[in-house]
Amino acid sequence: MKKTYLLILSLLLVFTVVGCEEDDNLVLIDPPPAAPQGVYSITGDGSVTIAWNGPYEADLDHYVVLRSLDPIDNYTEIGTVEALDNPNLDLIFYTFVDENAVNGVTYFYAVLSVDMGGKESDLSAEPVYDTPRPEGIVSLANSDILPDRAGFIFALGSIVDTSVADISVMTLFGVPHLHVRGNGMTWIQDMGSTVDFFDVTVAPAGGWSSFDEVELIEGHTYAIFIEKAIDTGNYAKVRAVSVTATSAKLEWGYQPVTDNPELKVIVPGI
Questions:
Q1: What is the DSSP string of 194-207?
Q2: What is the pLDDT of residue 28?
Q3: Residue 25 maps to a domain
Q4: Residue from 176, 149, 177 nearest 165 by CA
Q5: Three-class secondary structure of residue 14 per DSSP
Q6: pTM for the complete prediction?
Q7: How large is the C-alpha radius of gyration of the chain?
Q8: What does the pLDDT read at residue 16?
Q9: 54, 102, 133, 180: which could form a disulfide with 92 (CB 3.0–4.6 Å)?
Q10: Is the pLDDT of residue 264 over 70?
Q11: What would the DSSP string read from start to end of 99-168?
């Protein structure tokens, strides 16, 4: 009887050890990290900023940013960003600036996560693309005072006479207005009050003013479509930094790629 009891006890110990070893093996399995989420781009002048949310994981080492001229294949690494220590599994926001982007060229971007064991995640799922474009700040005179200093051509980034300008500053009924070239060749829309130049993401699909001028209000951003043929042209935007009776200081951005409405931020799905 004693031998039988010892035999049963020994078998139980064996099964217990094997079970623990199997459980330990399960615990030791370390899957690849999750891919970054919420990836989007911020259009700049000769640059593109890529932004994303890090996954809720504590053992991440860094992120790899990749770029391609093809939306599907040929992604190559253009930089890395070190992952911040995250023991509480907080949501952490990351950015990377691609300073080697060329204005007028469309790039496709992706980001992947790498954990401390060197395991890589899948590429981020969001279809992120961007076309950097020129931007700047210009001060225009009121056309009633200095007409040769009141106009601006986006493609040249130059102050010109109002007779050849894409936009110009003028006074109408005693109020400063932003005027666009008429004859149905240039369209304008007041996008309303904005906190900064980057609040307007893309040019609107419609809603253009039926007039050639709109009131120029400090803090407002204006979308502009410069038509080169029927329904074909280039998009631009300006934001009124300051407006007086004699001049206006404007931030401007111009998309040199025809029919591309990207002006600042592209967030897929929004």
A1: -SSTTS--B--SS-
A2: 60
A3: no
A4: 149
A5: helix
A6: 0.71
A7: 29
A8: 43
A9: 54
A10: no
A11: TT--TT--EEEEEEEEETT--B-PPP-S-EEE----EEEEEEE-TTT-GGGSEEETTTTEEE-GGG-SEE
Whole-number pLDDT of residue 9: 38
* Domain carrying residue 58: 37-130
Structure tokens at 195: 């906190």
With respect to residue 152, please indicate whether it lies within any of the assigned structural domains. yes
Mean residue pLDDT of the chain comes to: 86
Q: Cα–Cα distance between 138 and 163 in angstroms, integer? A: 18
Ranges 137-141, 174-178, 207-211: which has the least confidence? 207-211
Helices first, then strands: H and E counts in the chain: 1, 18
> What does the pLDDT read at residue 199?
87
Report the distance separating Cα 190 and Cα 237, nearest Å: 10
| Domain C-terminal end among 70, 99, 130 | 130
Residue with tokens 């590429």, as numbered in its chain: 123
